[in-house]
Design goal:
With 779 residues, the chain is α+β, with helices and mostly antiparallel strands. The protein has five domains: 199 residues, Tetratricopeptide repeat domain (Serine Threonine Protein Phosphatase 5, Tetratricopeptide repeat, Alpha Horseshoe); 167 residues, GAF domain (Beta-Lactamase), CATH 3.30.450.40; 101 residues, PAS domain (Beta-Lactamase); 64 residues; 170 residues, 2-Layer Sandwich (Heat Shock Protein 90). The chain has 26 helices and 18 strands.
Length: 779
């Protein structure tokens, strides 16, 4: 039974086909795990180890813990058997592999003893046997048998009996060995392993000798050994040979009705606290018709009997239901079936389903022989139904994962943490410029796709996966096949329990990076345009102050000429008065510096330069602006009232831009008051602190003021109340203030006029350049 060869299947060609196509890795892993199991049951340890070696490189494809557990369990038993015939280094290799398998099974047994404790105990017994710890081996064999029996693992119980029998035979406990062998044969027969039973009968002919047994008095108690072997084989193969749930149910119902002599049958499943009919079968004209009912069914069923069996786990058989309706079941009363049977299908102590059968024509249809078949059928069906459901769930999960991978929404690959890429979808291959031939040939490794400067990031991610099973998303680059680079976002998690492989999700960031670059370029263009507008506004403001600037420059120049003429006269005297000449020259130098300062301020406002980070004294900056606009202020008969707070913190910002804001506000206030005929004209400039790191500047006038509807609108671009204005000044001022982390707004002043205020954030201990004290404004 270790070969799958038949008239329609060539095992050797199939194995060649699996090995030549990487796309069949999942199928190959399942095939070799089945072969591993078959060789272990057959006692062919050498072939079993070879099968395990074929599975090992395919473990990354194993989609569920069920398959992985089978590999570790049977792999361990194969290695233990090889230790009996191996020597030297080969034996050491088998012992090391055995220890690794045992460690993994033991870890699972701590978390789920119901499923794994029997396996851990059996492997432990084999290790104790190899190491010569006889008493430990005896105890562990018994522990494995009891745990397997308690949790419904008939196959593991049979295997534990068989291995214990070999152990006792080696130690010359022949009677005990024979007892374990008989138990093993019985459990294999219960499991439906007919091929294994035949092997035992050939190896130990005494096991097949008829045993003196008393006929059972219970209709459900007929031993399986009394069944015809052909019937046992037929029933076992019919049920265990199906894995697709719908086909399995169809086969189960047909087999049950054919072997039980029933006219109607129901397969009932517990669903959400209630029982639901999922299949109904009827015998008509010698044929069995099976109807699957995937939706909630209204098929009539004996509710009282079904609930009793579901609650107690005990079967119910009524030889003549019409005469003995002890359950007072409404269905029995209304439909009057004669023979009734309801069997629980139980796996590992949990009810999987109920099988209900009835015959409306005769009583006592369910004879002891038929009951024995049905008992075997129920045992097989419980295991097969559960396995079929697991298989269907697995298929659905695999289909979902495959849809995700094949959708190629993002790149997905499976790789070892050392760098080997085992599988990848088309999206990833397209991203890095490789094809499936490159992948199949093993030409792609994520470590080689990674540029040197990014390798440390990948190594940290691999370390995180080993430590905690996943890593935080991170950005890096891959080198494409053509040598170009592609920016990517990576997220990854462990793909196997050993955390030696990972599934990696890769998002191509090329378009995002391009969009970010375009956004940065657009932002630069916006800032450049804003700087151009601000420069234009400064030039326009300087244009408005032409007369005042000319007056400011002419005054020191005229004074310089006068003082120079005076100095010449003092020099032309017979006795030159050098003291007077010196005083005249001092006044010339003073007036020259004054003219230079005015010109420097003007140049600072007019020149085009990128924004600078200066250390700014706001009070000093306001004084410089008022000096620049003094002539315009004086011409309009305006009184300036400065109210400066003392010890204001220094600011970090662009001195020219802040001067531009203050100058705009001062000029606007001057022009507003210049249109007045009556009333006082006063410009109030006030500085104050607001909180611990904020200061406020207020520029107020006694002009006509602003209506409530204009308080916000005047800051809109291209809105102006001046006949020749561009409507950009206040908009630019607000942008400058906001760029410095502040806020600019307007309010009506009392009793009349308007006040414009802006806040600025100060910086604690800003770096003060050594030349700050001597720097000319805008120089």
């Amino acid at each position: 039974f270790t070969s799958f060869n038949d008239a329609d299947f060539d095992e050797g060609r199939f194995e060649q086909h699996l090995g030549s196509n990487p796309q069949l890795a999942i199928a190959a892993s399942r095939y070799w795990i089945r072969k591993l199991q078959a060789f272990v049951y057959a006692g062919d340890s050498a072939s079993a180890v070879a099968a395990a070696s074929n599975v090992a490189p395919l473990l990354w494809t194993v989609p569920s813990q069920f398959e992985l557990a089978e590999y570790h369990f049977y792999g361990a038993l194969a290695r233990a058997a090889r230790c009996d015939t191996s020597l030297g280094e080969e034996r050491l290799r088998h012992l090391e592999a055995l220890a690794t398998h045992h460690q993994q099974i033991t870890l699972w047994a701590k978390n789920c003893p119901e499923t794994f404790a029997n396996r851990a105990a059996l492997i432990g017994a084999e290790i104790a046997r190899i190491e010569g710890r006889t008493l430990d081996a005896m105890r562990l064999y018994e522990q494995a048998i009891r745990s397997a029996r308690a949790n419904g693992f008939v196959n593991n119980e049979a295997l534990a009996h068989e291995l214990a029998a070999r152990f006792y035979a080696v130690h010359d406990f022949e009677d005990i060995s024979q007892l374990y062998l008989r138990n093993s044969r019985y459990e294999y027969l219960r499991w439906g392993a007919i091929g294994k039973v035949r092997q035992l009968d050939q190896l130990y002919p005494q096991l097949a000798e008829p045993q003196a047994v008393s006929l059972p008095t219970s209709t459900i108690g007929t031993p399986v050994e009394q069944l015809d072997l052909a019937t046992v084989i037929k029933v076992s193969q019919a049920i265990s040979g199906e894995i697709v749930l719908e086909k399995l149910i169809d086969t189960l119902m047909r087999t049950a009705l054919e072997n039980a002599g029933a006219g109607r049958g129901l397969l009932i499943f517990p669903r959400g606290g209630e029982l639901r009919v999922e299949a109904e079968a009827e015998t008509t004209g010698g044929d069995v018709a099976v109807h699957l009912r995937p939706e909630p069914s209204t098929a009539p069923m004996p509710g009282a009997i079904a609930n009793f069996v579901a609650r107690t786990g005990e079967p119910v058989i009524l030889d003549d239901a019409a005469a003995e309706n002890d359950f007072n079941d409404a269905y029995i009363r209304d439909n009057k079936p004669r023979s009734v049977l309801c069997l629980p299908l139980i796996k590992q102590g949990r009810m999987v389903a109920l099988l209900y059968l009835e015959n409306n024509l005769a009583p006592r249809v369910f004879t002891p022989a038929r009951m024995a078949v049905l008992k075997l059928l129920a045992s097989e069906a419980a295991i097969s139904l559960e396995n079929s459901r697991l298989y269907r769930d697995l298929e659905e999960r695999e289909a979902k994962i495959r849809r995700l991978v094949d959708a190629n929404i993002i790149g997905i690959l499976i790789a070892t943490l050392e760098g080997r890429i085992l599988d990848a979808n088309d999206a990833f291959l397209h991203m890095v410029g490789y094809d499936r031939e490159d992948l199949a040939a093993g030409h792609i490794r994520w470590t080689e796709l990674t540029p040197p400067e990014w390798r440390s990031v990948g190594e940290r991610a691999a370390a995180d996966i080993r430590a905690r099973g996943s890593c935080d998303p991170f950005e890096k680059e891959y080198i494409r096949k053509d040598g170009s680079r592609v920016p990517v976002l990576i997220a990854s998690a462990a793909f196997d329990e050993a955390r030696s492989k990972a599934v990696i999700f890769v998002l191509d960031l090329t378009e995002l990076k391009r969009a970010e670059a375009e956004a940065r370029a657009s932002e630069r263009r916006y800032r450049d345009m804003q700087n151009e507008l601000a420069h234009a506004n400064r030039v326009a403001t300087m244009g408005q102050l032409t007369a005042s600037i000319a007056h400011e420059v002419n005054q020191p120049i005229a004074a310089t000429v006068t003082n120079a003429q005076a100095a010449l006269r003092w020099m032309d005297m017979e006795q030159p008065d050098l003291a007077e000449v010196r005083q005249a020259l001092d006044r010339i130098a003073r007036d020259g510096r004054r003219a230079g300062e005015v010109i420097s301020r003007i140049r600072g406002q007019i020149k085009k330069a990128p924004p600078q980070q200066d250390v700014v004294d706001i009070n000093e900056t306001i004084d410089e602006v008022i000096s620049l606009a003094r002539s315009e202020i004086t011409k309009n008969g305006i009184k300036v009232n400065r109210q400066f707070a003392n010890s204001l913190p220094l600011l970090q910002g662009d001195r020219v831009q802040l001067q531009q804001v203050i100058l705009n506000l001062v000029i606007n206030a001057t022009e507003a008051m210049g249109t007045m005929i009556d009333g006082s004209r006063e410009l109030r400039v006030r500085t104050m602190t607001e909180g611990t790191n904020c200061l406020c500047v207020a520029v107020a006038d006694t002009g006509p003021g602003l209506g409530p509807e204009l308080l916000e609108r005047i800051f809109s671009p291209f809105y102006t109340t001046k006949p020749g204005g561009m409507g950009l000044g206040l908009s630019i001022c607000r942008s400058i203030v906001e760029a410095h982390g502040g806020r600019l707004w307007a309010e009506a002043d009392t009793p009349h006029g308007a006040v414009f205020q802006f806040t600025l954030t100060s910086v604690a201990d800003p770096p003060l350049p050594a030349e700050h004290a001597d720097t000319l404004v805008g120089g």
